[in-house]
Amino acid sequence: PKEIFLKDYKLPNYYFDTVDLSFSLSEEKTTVSAKISVVPRVDGAASPLVLDGVDLKLISVKVNGNELKEGEFYLDLRHLVLTSPPSGNFILETVTEILPHKNTSLEGLYKSCGIFCTQCEAEGFRKITFYQDRPDIMAKYTCRIEADKSLYPVLLSNGNLIEKGDLQGGKHFACWEDPFKKPCYLFALVAGQLESRDDNFTTSSGRKVALKIWTPPQDLPKTEHAMYSLKAAMKWDEDVFGREYDLDIFNIVSVPDGNLGAMENKSLNIFNSNLVLASPETATDADYASILGVIGHEVSLSSNACRVTCRDWFQLSLKEGLTVFRDQEFSSDMGSRTVKRIGDVSKLRTYQFSQDAGPMAHPVRPHSYIKVQTHSCVCLVYQKGAEVVRMYKTLLGSQGFRKGMDLYFQRHDGQAVTCEDFFAAMRDANHADFTNFLLWYSQAGTPIVKVTSSYNAEARTFSLKFSQTVPPTPGQPVKEPMLIPVAAGLIDSSGKDMPLSSIFHDGKLEHVAYGDQPVYTTVLRVTKGEEEFIFSDVPQKPIPSLLRGYSAPIYLQSDLTDDDLFFLLAHDSDEFNCWEACQILGRKLMLSQVVNFQKRNALVLDPLFVHGIKCILLDLSLDKEFIAKAITLPGEGEIMDMMEVADPDAVHAVRKFITKQLAFELKQEFLNLVKENRSSEKYVFDHTNMARRALKNTALGYLASLEDEEITELLLHEYKTATNMTDQFAALVAISQKPGKARDDALADFYNQWQHDNLVVNKWLALQSSSDIPGNVENVYKLLSHEAFDLKNPNKVQSLIKGFCASPVNFHAKDGSGYKFLGEIVVQLDKLNPQMASHMVSAFSRWKRYDETRQNLAKAQLEMIVSGKDGFSENVYEIASKSLA
Ligand code: B3K
């Protein structure tokens, strides 16, 4: 497999101006005719025209109407090459045949439960027709689709419907025209038995946009929330970013098979059904929130990335980092900002930090890759990329950020550009000093920032000394200091924010406050390996509140004592930092008990920690979802990441111990929370009701850890009386914590009730596979052959296989049974769907973090996979070989 480098980017020698596609769909094969007007970049500079094409059967190729003869073109496994095309503009026509029903990779054109649909990002278009499959080729498309009318009554593509009609032999056709130039990764086609929920949206300039959400007829009632989310997202995008949707129709199609969540194809978004379909009885609050967020994401992509796209796939974060930031902001505005930020930061810590510290670490904009789909890892390109965009906003303020966005669109509308172009727009619109900021795009690894503080009572100054290092990552042994925005405030002994006046830094006194308006939070621009910020006019020794709102994706190591942390937990006006104080205390506690566990000492729970949790539980002024988050202990993965040698058994035992002790000591408080927060009325998706359910169900989770008949009764009661999936599933999760009859009966009952609903059954699979009950691998083997499982469906693979890898004790079982299970699955899955297989194999990537026994066992599986006895895809090879390196 060949590695591709960012530094090797070259402009294309040929551009495409218009592309007319014609599809004849049928059960055995699909014929694709493509007519492309080709424009050489430098007129007369004749060079071969290399078209990408994978799994295509070429029927004919013509240039300016003349069939090409032998010698004028050749084919290899991945290309069609025109050896000496004409020197001026010309028309290229190809006819190819493809087999969508055999396409289990789910890239290109494939069939999902009787529906033809496409997935072209990143490199799926080359599985449809011969093309220069790269995002900097932007052309205007038309698309004619012909198919059997009774099997495929609905025929959709991008843009506007310009013609449709019936044909002989029970067939019909539809012609679509997209007025905007687009890269081929935004092309889409859908054909099937679908019905739509219709609505409309009037843009700020008064244009009426038809909104349609398409599903198989039986699923249509479950699209109400998706339509609500679509309208809310379009309105938000206009209000906050001034972006108006540019076409007269916005289609969303829900399909049950897909490797991804959703795809922003121009005016024809294709969504995984789990991100469209919801009803109170079948979807949880988390599902409702994901639908809102992902629709927000795709709407935002439709209005920005479909207008300004990436020059090449190294720049993926240009559109996706920006869009994740925007969808996070949208969800924050629709619910609780603090709770959303806590959720996003937890994800960052669980996935991004871990990836950034392992063999697959790469910068937000990678320098190289073998397979772009494999490499465009969501946590580094999307989530860390979103943090980079958030830092622009933190540094520039809301208005400055909006000015930067406006300039970006003004400069680049209709173009394919780079991360530098985005950076330049932000800088130029604000005349900002962004020294060392671009390094966020090119340096991998999570920066470690250490801070020490000191107070000088005589001079009334408070000093913060920072030092930063970025750890070495594969291929990048030495790093430069970066620009890190650290939002900071000072809190006085009564718990109030102190007004900030000025800061001495870098030989200069900088005013923080101007005029009468007090300022309580300032953004410190940390840019060097070591530097000091001295706050002046500080009347008493403050407790600093650092990195407010998590203003940069870093590890912050401060000299705050436990007392300081308990103080911040009780008083910080920055709610995020209240939660953070609780998390730091939780991490310290867990790590100290891990040492006890390893030394075989008795585990102990600090009474101060119990008291802190109790205060949060009883504080009526706090948001209920915030309480639920604050009393949730840091995840096991996060703690393992902080250890020299990760010890899953110790971390698991400690987390279980602390949970159980808290439940024991605060049993009455938890019982009260369950009683006080039960759902009585109809399910409502809003923050107040979600918060109530979150708190009740978190309390239930704690109680479930107790060995107590009365509690088992309570859990069963909650399960049976639940009126919505959030409550029913939370009760089932709680009951399933312990092996036994109650668990077996409840799981069987749940399956009986919901076996007709695939999305609910997937939750049932995930709950069992991720269970930490001893020896669960046997159960997961059994589930592989259960009627509810299908290795070809990515949602089921995610539920069962990824779910299993999320269980530290069973996946990392010391007898190697978990690793062996995954090794076997990867080999099977790779033959069907390399993209999914590569996602799964990445669970092995951090094998060197474990003890020697586990290392050897995991390494043996990776070696078996790359030994290639059964062959392997580039996707799997890239992850497995980099993990072994
Ligand atoms: N841009 C798509 C994802 C495509 C992933 C292809 N491997 C939609 C999204 O980012 O949500």
Automatic annotation (TrEMBL):
<dbReference type="GO" id="GO:0009507">
    <property type="term" value="C:chloroplast"/>
</dbReference>
<keyword id="KW-0862">Zinc</keyword>
<feature type="domain" description="Aminopeptidase N-like N-terminal">
    <location>
        <begin position="20"/>
        <end position="186"/>
    </location>
</feature>
<dbReference type="GO" id="GO:0008237">
    <property type="term" value="F:metallopeptidase activity"/>
</dbReference>
<dbReference type="InterPro" id="IPR024601">
    <property type="entry name" value="Peptidase_M1_pepN_C"/>
</dbReference>
<feature type="domain" description="Peptidase M1 alanyl aminopeptidase C-terminal">
    <location>
        <begin position="562"/>
        <end position="885"/>
    </location>
</feature>
<feature type="domain" description="Peptidase M1 membrane alanine aminopeptidase">
    <location>
        <begin position="227"/>
        <end position="437"/>
    </location>
</feature>
<comment type="similarity">
    <text>Belongs to the peptidase M1 family.</text>
</comment>
<dbReference type="InterPro" id="IPR014782">
    <property type="entry name" value="Peptidase_M1_dom"/>
</dbReference>
<dbReference type="InterPro" id="IPR035414">
    <property type="entry name" value="Peptidase_M1_pepN_Ig-like"/>
</dbReference>
<dbReference type="GO" id="GO:0004177">
    <property type="term" value="F:aminopeptidase activity"/>
</dbReference>
<dbReference type="Pfam" id="PF01433">
    <property type="entry name" value="Peptidase_M1"/>
</dbReference>
<dbReference type="InterPro" id="IPR012779">
    <property type="entry name" value="Peptidase_M1_pepN"/>
</dbReference>
<feature type="domain" description="Peptidase M1 alanyl aminopeptidase Ig-like fold">
    <location>
        <begin position="445"/>
        <end position="558"/>
    </location>
</feature>
<keyword id="KW-0378">Hydrolase</keyword>
<dbReference type="InterPro" id="IPR027268">
    <property type="entry name" value="Peptidase_M4/M1_CTD_sf"/>
</dbReference>
<keyword id="KW-0482">Metalloprotease</keyword>
<dbReference type="GO" id="GO:0008270">
    <property type="term" value="F:zinc ion binding"/>
</dbReference>
<dbReference type="Pfam" id="PF17900">
    <property type="entry name" value="Peptidase_M1_N"/>
</dbReference>
<dbReference type="GO" id="GO:0006508">
    <property type="term" value="P:proteolysis"/>
</dbReference>
<keyword id="KW-0645">Protease</keyword>
<dbReference type="InterPro" id="IPR045357">
    <property type="entry name" value="Aminopeptidase_N-like_N"/>
</dbReference>
<keyword id="KW-0031">Aminopeptidase</keyword>
<dbReference type="Pfam" id="PF11940">
    <property type="entry name" value="DUF3458"/>
</dbReference>
<protein>
    <recommendedName>
        <fullName>Peptidase M1 leukotriene A4 hydrolase/aminopeptidase C-terminal domain-containing protein</fullName>
    </recommendedName>
</protein>
<dbReference type="Pfam" id="PF17432">
    <property type="entry name" value="DUF3458_C"/>
</dbReference>
<dbReference type="InterPro" id="IPR042097">
    <property type="entry name" value="Aminopeptidase_N-like_N_sf"/>
</dbReference>
<dbReference type="InterPro" id="IPR038438">
    <property type="entry name" value="PepN_Ig-like_sf"/>
</dbReference>
<dbReference type="InterPro" id="IPR037144">
    <property type="entry name" value="Peptidase_M1_pepN_C_sf"/>
</dbReference>
<keyword id="KW-0479">Metal-binding</keyword>
